[in-house]
Amino acid sequence: MALKIAVLAKQVIDPEMPMAAFRIDGDAKRVVPPANIPPVVNGFDENAVEAALRIKDAQEATVTVISTGAEFALDVMKKPLSMGADELVLLQDDAFSNTIDSFLTAQLLAAAVRKLDGFDLIICGRQASDWDNAQVPLGVAEILGLSCVSLGKKVEVSDGKARVERIVPDGYEVVEATLPALVTVSNELGQPRYPTLRGIMAATRKRPTVWSKNDLALDDAQSEARITLRQLFIPISDQECEIIEGEDPADSGRLLALKLREAKII
Amino acid sequence: MADATGVLVIGQTSDGALDSTAAELLAAGRAIAAALDEELSIGLLGDTLDVPAQQAIAHGADRVYAVNHPLLAEYQPDVYLAALDALCRDANPRVVLISRTPEGRELAPRLAFRLGVGLAQDCLEVSLDESARTLLANRPVYGGNAVAVVSCERTPQIAAIRPKAYEPAQPDPSRQGQIISFPVELDASQARTRVVERVQEESEGVKLEEARVVVSGGRGLGGPEPFAGLENLARLLGGAVGASRAAVDSGWVPSSYQVGLTGKAITPDLYITVAISGASQHMAGCSGAKCIVAINKDADANIFKDARYGVVGDWEKVIPALTEAVRELVDT
Ligand SMILES: Cc1cc2nc3c(=O)[nH]c(=O)nc-3n(C[C@H](O)[C@H](O)[C@H](O)COP(=O)(O)OP(=O)(O)OC[C@H]3O[C@@H](n4cnc5c(N)ncnc54)[C@H](O)[C@@H]3O)c2cc1C
Ligand SMILES: Nc1ncnc2c1ncn2[C@@H]1O[C@H](COP(=O)(O)O)[C@@H](O)[C@H]1O
């Protein structure tokens, strides 16, 4: 039987945009999406797609990408399809706009997983580069009662187990988890593959499944926010930088050493 | 059920002693408990807890829940969670504080979901809105480009606090406190994951997280070889070498070198960055450094906004001269 894999992927504002383009609306407590810089699939979620496709390269498997949000740039969200994923499921509703609250997001994604009759393996990014919560996947695993391994850099499946190389501060550990399991991955997994021309053509033809709030049987208690955003601001640095200028760069290097000694830092 | 009360810190132990992160949490928790005028307790998990329990009291805990069980001798997330879940339900605290250590990163979100409450993730500071007895948590978001103040809507209010965000309080061995042994029923079959192998990749010498001096290299170094030069400089200063994600992603150094949002958070006295542009995600890992020095050939690089001292120039010229001068200075 083909292994059933889901990838949870989020659309985010491009985190690599120039810092000068980063603006917030403090009153509305939100980040203003920069004009002319399109959103992207969260980088770690592209790593998650890559992890799923590597498994699919090695054995029979299907890869379903699931995302929730208030609105989507369809061409952006189709990128995983053009990389080789089979299906795209979008949970789209105006009610899904509060994404700092991981509780609701995880409930929605778990409900969609149930509606799709479950998966052997769910792969997620380690964190979404908007709120940097690193929380939704662990919530999904809790809600669905799945084995859970975070921070993978290599994911393999055999004999009803996921085998994950998991990053720890001084190296990595190899962890075995019984299926069904949820794994989060980090950029150490390696470059996500580029979409091929054939992949892009195939993705153009595919239509996503779109579900709204009514399609997901959530009760009110599951939809209530657990976190309130009170304030959002851009921190200001009052650091003054003293530029050390010598006659040439080597001289500056020497003067820097003297400066640090004078300041009793070295 | 009685009303939730008090602050519960989840404390880690290492090598049979209270971990420094637990002492940091007790310092943060002490202030919240004082503002609430309620008790500060700590939950300790393990199989030999006498020493860390006494240390926790010296560091400010009024009460210690010693969760003793042979299955807690080594960290396993599923088993630890079962114990924490039972403890939180029984102790019924108003506020729970966990350190965002590698273990805390897994435990805090899962515990919050298990209890059906929210979690303020990766906080640098927590305070109390006294009128509402609500925890206010400051946390960096958007890769460190912005700061959010969040509060939790349910009880217990849980916050995961970044290691080293708080200074541990000075221990007072004469402090008195209560030690309660908290029994838990655990079963080895609760563990759904198993570590089958551990591979160490860290460089020898001073650990990056503990180093008082760190020298980090970025993409502008152009390859792995120049890191040898940074090692030299770091060694002279008794420090460690770090890197930006760009250098790690290029395969020049192992990922254990990475400083930043998704790498290590470091708080050295001196942080020397070499050919690093200073992206917010990098700075998120070194904002606690006392003095940042930037060496970059681009005068407009963002790193100079956060640096105390800067040299605008080519590292190939600056680093050998700096290293030579440091060698002379440390010898005298
Ligand atoms: C979700 C997310 C998480 C991230 N997490 C991290 C993280 O944890 N840590 C991290 O570091 N990054 C992280 N990043 C990446 C971050 O955004 C930057 O891309 C990265 O830090 C850039 O690395 P760099 O400064 O080495 O490279 P660049 O930005 O390319 O900068 C290279 C610098 O070298 C200088 N230079 C070039 N040649 C020379 C020379 N000869 N002499 C002197 N200077 C020279 C250039 O002027 C330039 O400023 C993350 C990104 C995302 C989206
Ligand atoms: N709205 C979403 N839709 C789909 N997946 C999500 C969403 N939010 C979070 N995730 C998944 O959870 C990971 C961690 O996100 P977070 O907990 O928000 O930092 C992401 O990398 C995704 O894999």
The CATH H-level homologous superfamily of the largest domain in chain B: HUPs
Q: Supply the number of structural domains of chain B.
A: 2
- Residue share in helix of chain B: 25-40%
Estimate the mean pLDDT confidence of chain B: 96
Kindly report the CATH topology of the largest domain in chain A. Rossmann fold
What would the principal axes of the Cα set say about the shape of chain A?
Answer: globular
Major sheet: arrangement of strands of chain A: 11-10-9-12-8-1-6-7-13
* Assigned CATH architecture of the largest domain in chain A: 3-Layer(aba) Sandwich
Largest interface: A-B, 83 and 89 residues
Summarize the amount of helix of chain A as a percent range.
25-40%
CATH class of the largest domain in chain B: Alpha Beta
Structure description:
The complex is a heterodimer of chains A (266) and B (332). Chain A has 266 residues and is of the alpha/beta class. Chain A folds into two domains: 3-223, Rossmann fold; 236-266, no CATH class. Chain A has eight helices and 15 strands. In chain A, a hairpin with a 2-residue loop joins β9 and β10. Chain A is globular. Chain B is elongated. In chain B, strands 7-11-6-1-4-5-12 form a seven-stranded parallel β-sheet, with helices on both faces. Chain B has a five-stranded parallel β-sheet with strand order 15-14-16-17-18. Chain B starts with 6 loop residues before the first strand and ends with a helix. Chain B folds into two domains: 7-190, HUPs (Rossmann fold), CATH 3.40.50.620; 208-331, TPP-binding domain (Rossmann fold, 3-Layer(aba) Sandwich). The interface between A and B is large, with 83 and 89 residues. β11 of chain A pairs antiparallel with β13 (193-200) of chain B, so a sheet runs across the interface. The structure holds flavin-adenine dinucleotide (FAD) and adenosine monophosphate. Flavin-adenine dinucleotide sits between chains B (143, 218-220, 244-247, 258-263, 275-277, 279, 281-282, 285, 296-298, 301, 314-316) and A (15-16, 43, 129). Adenosine monophosphate is lined by residues 8-10, 42, 44-45, 48, 67-69, 99, 102, 105, 109, 124-125, 127-128, 131, 133-137 of chain A.
